[in-house]
Amino acid sequence: MNALLETALVYVRAGLAIFPLHPRSKTPFRKARPESGDSGHLCAAPLHQHGFKDATTDPTVIEAWWRAHPSANIGLATGRGLDVLDVDGDEGEAGLANLIARRWPLPATSEVRTGRPGGGRHLYFRSAAWPNTAGTLGPNLDTRGLGGFVLLPPSVHPSGAIYTWTNLSRPAPAPAWLTALLYRVPEPAAAPPTPRVLSSNETDPVERASRYLAKMPPAISGQGGHLATWYAARAMCGFGLTKDEVLELLLTEYNPRCVPPWRRDDLQHKVADAFGKAKRVPDLRGRAS
């Protein structure tokens, strides 16, 4: 029994749904296309022409597949109990470190060193119905969930390097904060506020407020972010702006500096609360900067 088949049987006994791919490749087998002169990769083995859709835990089927293709790479259908975070190279590692610094540490979990030139690793988590993404979390940070797949050791990367387990501990639950980032709904684009018509001797209060806001500290999670944002909203009330103008200023001038950025409805609550206490706000309209 060759090493790939033996390992494939270990995986299915552990309950992992796997399927074969071309040797030294990330390309699954597919159906023949006679009309284009493509004979496909038909063989006497049971059906395996639909990639991850044919993944199985049946050892009889696995044996037939790898006896027909003894050098086939081993693919894992993700989203069926396991999701994967794919971290590629230095840029991916830097992006992940930045996420962790802004959020929470990742738990220790199963990990594979990929064969990617320049380095790469797969972090395995117990499934949380992750989507398949490319760059949603940052450059070279991808995820594989339902409808996706990754290569399992000892598959061979197209570069010739072999996928290797670096941590075989039990997969940790998918971190809730990471799952939330993957499903974060982008805020709808707000209509721009109606510009004010100023007299020749009047200074734009929105511009004055914007300059003042630029000097206020951003909200940082875990570092008094709620209070910092409330103070920013409160200060904007001192420029004689409308609620809509204050909200747009916070969204466009303040929110991009916050970690993490606020949702639009959360900022609306802050503005409403600040306007409710507006009588206590000093008049800042005469401030030049």
Secondary structure elements and pairings:
Elements: H1 3-13, E1 18-21, H2 59-68, E2 73-77, E3 82-88, H3 89-102, E4 111-113, E5 120-126, E6 133-134, E7 141-144, E8 149-152, E9 164-167, E10 172-173, H4 176-182, H5 205-214, H6 225-236, H7 243-254, H8 264-276
Parallel strand pairs: 5-10
Antiparallel strand pairs: 1-2, 2-8, 3-5, 3-7, 4-5, 4-9, 6-7
Helix pairs in contact: 1-2, 5-7, 6-8, 7-8
Low-confidence parts = 42-46, 185-202, 280-289
Radius of gyration: 27 Å
Q: List SSEs in N-to-C order.
A: HEHEEHEEEEEEEHHHHH
Helical segment count: 8
Assign a percent range to the helix content.
Answer: 25-40%
User: What is the oligomeric state here?
Assistant: single chain
CATH architecture of the largest domain: 2-Layer Sandwich
Report the structural category. Answer: alpha+beta
Please give the alpha-carbon distance between the first and last residues: 77 Å
CATH topology tier name of the largest domain: Prim-pol fold
Mean residue pLDDT: 82
Briefly, what CATH class of the largest domain? Alpha Beta
| Structure summary, number of beta strands | 10
Strand-residue proportion: 5-15%
**What number of domains?**
2
Global outline: elongated
Describe the structure.
There is one protein chain. The protein is 31% helix and 15% strand. It has 289 residues and is α+β, with helices and mostly antiparallel strands. The protein folds into 2 domains: 3-182, Prim-pol fold (2-Layer Sandwich), CATH 3.30.2250; 205-280, no CATH class. The strands form 2 sheets. Strands 3, 4, 5, 6, 7, 9 and 10 form a 7-stranded mixed sheet that branches. A 3-stranded antiparallel sheet has the order 1-2-8. Helix 5 packs parallel to helix 7 (243-254) and helix 6 crosses helix 8. The longest helix has 14 residues, at 89-102. Residues 42-46, 185-202 and 280-289 have low confidence and may be disordered.
